Structures are given as C-alpha cells and as structure tokens.
Amino acid sequence: MELNWKQQVRPIIALSPMADMTDSAYCRIVKSIASPIVFREMVSAEAVIRGNDKTLDMSAIHEDERPLVQQIFGAHPDSMREAARVIEEEHHPEGIDINMGCPVYKITSNFNGAALMKEPELAATIVKEMKSVISVPLSTKMRAGWSVHTECIDFAKRMEQAGSDLITVHGRTKEQAYRGLSNRNVVREVKKGVQVPVLYNGDVFTHEDYFQALEETECDGVLIARGALGNPWIFRDIEARLRGEQPTPVTIRERIDVICQHLDLHLLQYGEQSITTFRKHLSWYFKGISNMKPYKQELMTTKNRNELIDILEKIALHLDE
Ligand SMILES: Cc1cc2nc3c(=O)[nH]c(=O)nc-3n(C[C@H](O)[C@H](O)[C@H](O)COP(=O)(O)O)c2cc1C
C-alpha cells in the first residue's frame, strides 16, 4: 500500500495523532468502522535509536491499520534521521510525520514539538535529513505559531522548501495551548502560500464541523483529534455525507459492541492487567450519554475483563429499552 499525498482522493479524512490514545488498538477500531488515514501517536526519536522496546512496540503496525503515518518527535537532525530510518525499516509505515506542534513543557523544554517553530532553520535541517533516508512521504504538523497566529505562514513555506510533502496546521498558537478557538483564516493563508497539500486541524467534533472547516480553510482535508475520542463513528458520518447519504445515529448496542472489541484489542496490546489504562477510553465513549449515573462507579473501578463486559452488557440492556 502506498501513500501519495498529492494524488490522495480529496477531501482527505484523517485521525490526528494523540499520545496514549491513537495506539494500534484504537487505530484498528477506527479502521473497522471507516477508512480515514490514521496518524499514530508520537514516538521519541531518541527512544527509537536507543532501541527502547516499548517505543519500538508502540510503532508496530497491524495490516488493518494501513495506510498509516507514524509521527516522531525530536530536536536533533541526526537522531531524527536515524529514527526515521529505523521506523521505516522495522515497521514500514506509509508515511512519517514530524511533531512541530506539541505545547507540553516536557517536550518543548528540550526544543522538541512546537519549540521547532522558533527554530525554522533547525526544523528545515531535520526535514532534509529525514527525507534523505526514507522512501515514504514526510509530513510536518505544526501550530499556528509559538505566540503569534501568523508565524505558520512563513514557517510552512520553509518546511515545503525543505521537502515536507504535506503540512498540517492546528490553528492555535503554542501559548494558547487549548484556549480560544482554532484560527481557520490563518490556515487558509497557509494553504494559499504552498503547493503541497495542507490539512486543517482544530475543533472538529461533528461531520458538520468537518465540512464547514473544509469550506472555511479551502484545505485538502482535515485531521480530527478530540472529536474522534470515544467517537470513531465521526469518520463513518463524514464518509456517508460524501456519498450523499445521511449519517446514521449510533445505537447503544453498536456502541457497546465497539467498546468490547476495543477493550479486547487493548488487552491484547498491553496485557490482561491493562484495564486501568482503558478507562480513559470508557470516559470518552460514554461522554454525553444520559442515564449512566448508576453504572459509572462500577465501570471505572472493575479490574476484571469479564466483569467489565457484564457491566457493559447491563448498560446495553437498560439504555436500549
Ligand atoms: C490526548 C491528546 C494527545 C495528543 N497527542 C499528540 C501527539 O502525539 N502528536 C501531535 O502532533 N498532537 C497531539 N495532540 C494534538 C492533536 O493531534 C490536535 O492537534 C489537537 O488536539 C487539536 O485538534 P482537535 O481540536 O481536533 O482536538 C494531542 C491531543 C490530545 C487531546
């Protein structure tokens, strides 16, 4: 399977990378429901080249997830180049992406993530070095800027010149973190200023938001993050609309079936003891679902897979009535 951003069918629909969320288990769930391109959670370049087993396992790919883009974060051209080489050699993702948008202090204090936006020449060198060793497309994911919304316009041009095959912009600055709204106007300016495809990212929570964002930014597609948490059906809804059909509401039965499948893939990936790390997904799957109060406590405390399945079945039975 190959990925060619220029030839990819428009509009592009994609799952945005989210640390601890867009792992193999969740990407498989998304792909069992619809066909977006999935961006895997970021992995550390330094950990990859140290041969850290956990990190290398994190970037293993199941065939069902393809085409898949693996994101890498790092600040040193040599380690980013070597990490990209190792990841392509070991796991053959269809694309590699560079994290130039993470605002978290632990990341930016080491000049990774959004800090690269303050160092365009370093960022360009990283792009060139990575491109020199991989055969798949390389993309860059950035914020609107570090502190000023328009910084991404020149920065994106610089990344294109350096060889980035696709650019994603989350329309908030690093300093905003998640405050305020994602600025769509500035992403439209980025799109106008480069030849490579541009994906918009930010505040897309429904299929209506997706089409509105496309119209407002004139981008080639949209990357969806929080709107896909507990809601892999958002991609199915968008695909239905593109076929000229009305999206179908998700029934409780369907929700529970998908949660059970996701739970089993999660346990397969992390081991039988990992129910506790599945709870974050449960919170998202039941966000906004009414009449959940009697089950919440049990749902969030059980440590046993079969017990959890029983609770989920009880919910299906009662809420479906
Ligand atoms: C839990 C979580 C983890 C994230 N991890 C990453 C990551 O690994 N790499 C990345 O580029 N962005 C990461 N992001 C940012 C999202 O990909 C996205 O850019 C941001 O949430 C805005 O999109 P949204 O409004 O659709 O959520 C993360 C966001 C969340 C909520």
Q: Helix segment count? A: 14
- Assign the CATH superfamily of the largest domain: Aldolase class I
- What is the string of SSEs from the N terminus onward? EHEHHEHEHHEHEHEHEHHHHH
Proportion of residues in β-strands: 5-15%
Look at the helices and sheets and give the structural class.
alpha/beta
Order of strands in the sheet with the most strands? Answer: 1-2-3-4-5-6-7-8
- Gross CATH architecture of the largest domain: Alpha-Beta Barrel
Question: What does the largest sheet look like?
Answer: 8 strands, parallel, barrel
The count of DSSP E runs of length 2 or more, i.e. the number of strands, is: 8
Number of domains: 2
Bound molecules: flavin mononucleotide
Percent helix range: 40-55%
Terminal CA distance: 44 Å
Gross morphology is globular
**Low-confidence segments, ≥5 residues, pLDDT <50?**
none
CATH topology of the largest domain: TIM Barrel
List keywords for this structure.
binds flavin mononucleotide; globular; alpha/beta; 321 residues; TIM Barrel; single chain
Write up what this structure looks like.
It is a single chain. The chain is an alpha/beta fold and 321 residues long. It folds into two domains: 12-242, Aldolase class I (TIM Barrel); 252-320. It has 14 helices and eight strands. The protein has helices at residues 24-33, 45-50, 53-58, 77-91, 105-108, 120-131, 151-162, 184-193, 207-217, 233-242, 252-270, 275-285, 293-301, 305-320; strands at residues 12-15, 37-44, 68-73, 95-100, 138-145, 166-173, 198-201, 221-224. The longest helix has 19 residues, at 252-270. It is globular, with a radius of gyration of 20 Å. The N and C termini lie far apart (44 Å). The model has no long low-confidence stretch (mean pLDDT 97). It binds flavin mononucleotide. Flavin mononucleotide binds at residues 16-19, 21, 41-42, 71, 99, 101-102, 141, 170, 201-204, 224-227.
